[in-house]
Write a structure and sequence with these properties.
The protein has about 575 residues and is of the alpha/beta class. It folds into three domains: about 200 residues, 3-Layer(aba) Sandwich (Phosphoenolpyruvate Carboxykinase, domain 1), CATH 3.40.449; about 270 residues, Phosphoenolpyruvate Carboxykinase, domain 3 (Alpha-Beta Complex); about 80 residues, Phosphoenolpyruvate Carboxykinase, domain 2. About 30% of the residues lie in helices and about 25% in strands. It is built from 16 helices and 31 strands. The strands form seven sheets. Strands 1, 4, 5, 6, 7, 8, 9, 10 and 11 form a nine-stranded mixed β-sheet that branches. Strands 12, 13, 14, 15, 16, 17, 25, 26 and 29 form a nine-stranded mixed β-sheet that branches. Helix 3 links the parallel strand 4 and strand 5. The radius of gyration is 23 Å and the shape is globular. The relative contact order is 0.12. Bound molecules: guanosine-5'-triphosphate, sulfopyruvate and manganese (II) ion. Guanosine-5'-triphosphate binds next to helix 9 and strand 18.
């Protein structure tokens, strides 16, 4: 059985794009392998060392198509105010003319794949069906890892017309003719000119965040750029946390954390590493599901030392994009191990450590099935999700933000999230390392006016007395020589331990102008060689720096004009008052 609305839409899309062939994807193993063979045949994929990386492949993307392109990403609502000052806006009519024209005949000579997918566990009230139409077999293969694809999605859809319509074409891959357009009112996505992750795997950022955030606003839930973990203490109690850090700022790594020796009786369970859908449960707690089934993770920096769980997850049945290739046919990237004497770089060019350029692209990624992660939670596919006790906001800040602090209450926590900032990374095209405001790590992913989004967050907090506590973390503070003060990775569990103590009414803290900061003794630093000065610096709140920060926050808030909720200005005034 197949939904009539779906059939009609596919016919309409085919009339416009004029593919040579239409393939309905069932998501089967057989179909996947046929696709892989085809891509191995035409050079889209290279097979990796079958013994060391079974069923793993390398894809080299077009050199100008290696990251999300936020400047080419649009929210298409009738009124520009509904997209808000932080989004690019295009009227639906202009999109239909300008972008629609690019789709005309764009699949001539190509195969059009119809990819039904389910975001969220089967049978879950959280779950949503989408259908992506694409002319990229690489996209299909990635969607099969990242989503529940094919038959199961069609079963979920039944004869309903309620599904997200995603139209994707590689077009000519030219950045001049690249657009990623979202039509929240029609639950539709048009993406053309890019084969890269977030631009092209439409179930991910386009559907599960930009479209879903609008649905969440209308229906009273949250669609967030968050990891989800369960932290099990030595007594066996599991506390679930969700964390929003901007792209390439440590979600995957925190999601797969391996405890350091001193805390070896703890265990961290991975529920999700990038996206969380959160709803109030009947018990008044906030429950979260991970809508995805795979990890589209940053490769550089991933190693047996920093993230052994990821290294195991990606060692089979995975797709690598823009990593380097060693002569023995294994993938390599900066930070994985000592550099090989010789490799082919991410563009296939001969490379040696003396080449003076990175071998892997800084935003090289692996696509790996979540179920292969040794730390995957036994509850990661629970239809009702997991109950969240704390929300972490975090960023990459060389200065200003201490290692961790706790918000005074929910509204203050929303202020902390709304005002957070982070240094830009290679996950999006553009300058790297400049501090920008990235509220709730959703700046590039909120499908509507962020002033309304903040209001929605504030409102969520009024609905239950059992909302999670809110914290801010920063693993990236540096010393005067530019070295990270905090060892990060597994050691981040020490910070989580304090957070969990706070949630349970324990854990010593000092009240500072920005929130509760742990006293140096309250952090479990056993077995860690960290100087007293480093700890003091990590936990230091400098009133002068924070007065400047408050000014930068005000400047950001003013962009929203009258639409910004008064509660945020109130929180801002209170911050200034506390700073003296
Ligand atoms: P997206 O997939 O883009 O949303 O990113 P993410 O938030 O999942 O980031 P990820 O965990 O992949 O980390 C990105 C980079 O930050 C990698 O190079 C990591 O090695 C590095 N990183 C992660 N955690 C830490 C940490 O605690 N300390 C330091 N210094 N680096 C870290
Ligand atoms: C990010 O950029 O936040 C990612 C990768 O997780 S992408 O799927 O490209 O959005
Ligand atoms: Mn992300």
């Amino acid at each position: 059985m197949c939904s009539r609305a779906l059939n009609e839409w596919i016919e309409e899309v085919a009339r416009v794009t004029q593919p040579d062939r239409i393939v309905w994807c069932d998501g089967s193993e057989r179909e996947y392998h046929a696709l892989l063979e085809q891509m191995l045949g035409d050079g889209t994929l290279l097979r990796l060392n079958e013994r060391k990386y079974p069923n793993c492949y390398l894809h080299r993307s077009h050199p100008t198509d290696v990251a999300r392109t936020e400047h080419l990403t649009f929210i298409c609502t009738p009124k520009p105010e509904d997209a808000g000052p932080t989004n690019n806006w295009m009227s639906p009519q202009e999109a239909r003319e300008r972008v629609g024209a690019l789709f005309r005949g764009c699949m001539k000579g190509r195969t059009m794949y119809v990819v039904p997918y389910l975001m969220g566990p089967p049978g879950s009230p959280f779950s949503e069906v989408g259908v992506e139409v694409t002319d990229s077999p690489y996209v299909v293969a990635n969607m099969r890892i990242m989503t529940r694809m094919g038959k199961i999605a069609l079963e979920h859809l039944g004869d309903s017309e309620h599904f997200v319509r995603g139209l994707h074409s590689l077009g000519d891959l030219s950045p001049e003719r690249r657009y990623i357009c979202h039509f929240p009112e029609e639950r539709a996505i048009w993406s053309i000119g890019s084969g890269y992750g977030g631009n092209a795997l439409l179930g991910k950022k386009c559907h599960s965040l930009r479209i879903a955030s609008v649905e969440a606003r209308d229906e009273g839930w949250l669609a967030e750029h968050m990891l989800i973990i369960g932290v099990e203490d030595p007594e066996g109690n599991v506390t679930y946390l969700a964390g929003a850090f901007p792209s390439a700022c440590g979600k995957t790594n925190l999601a797969m954390l391996v405890p350091p020796p001193a805390l070896s009786r703890y265990k961290v369970w991975t529920v999700g590493d990038d996206i969380a859908w959160l709803r109030l449960g009947p018990d008044g707690r906030l429950w979260a599901v991970n809508p995805e089934t795979g990890f589209f993770g940053v490769a550089p920096g991933t190693s047996v030392k920093t993230n052994p769980n990821a290294m195991i997850a990606l060692s089979r049945n995975s797709i690598f994009t823009n990593v380097a290739l060693t002569p023995e046919g294994t993938p390599w990237w900066e930070g994985m191990s000592d550099p090989p004497e010789f490799a082919y770089d991410w563009q296939g060019k001969p490379w040696t450590p003396a080449s003076g350029r990175p071998a892997a692209h800084p935003n090289a990624r692996y696509t790996a099935p979540a179920r292969q992660c040794p730390s995957i939670s036994p509850h990661w596919e629970d239809p009702q999700g997991v109950p969240i006790s704390a929300i972490l906001f975090g960023g990459r800040r060389a200065r200003v933000a201490p290692l961790v602090y706790e918000a005074f209450d929910w509204a203050h926590g929303v202020f902390v999230g709304a005002s957070m900032a982070s240094e830009t990374t290679a996950a999006a095209m553009g300058e790297i390392g400049v501090v920008r405001r990235d509220p709730m790590a959703m700046l590039p992913f909120c499908g509507y006016n962020m002033a309304d989004y903040f209001r929605h967050w504030l409102w969520m907090g009024t609905r239950s007395p059992r909302m999670p506590r809110i914290f801010h973390v920063n693993w990236f503070r540096t010393d005067e020589r530019g070295q990270f003060l905090w060892p990060g990775f597994g050691e981040n569990l020490r910070v989580l331990k304090w957070i969990i103590e706070r949630v349970n009414g324990r854990g010593d803290a000092e009240e500072t102008p920005i929130g509760y900061v742990p006293t140096p003794e309250a952090l479990d630093l056993e077995g860690l060689t960290l100087s007293k000065e480093a700890v003091r610096e990590l936990l230091h709140v400098d009133p002068n720096e924070w007065r400047q920060e408050a000014e930068a926050i005000a400047e950001f808030f003013r962009r929203f004009g009258d639409r910004l909720p008064e509660e945020l200005w109130q929180a801002h005034r209170q911050l200034l008052r506390r700073l003296g």
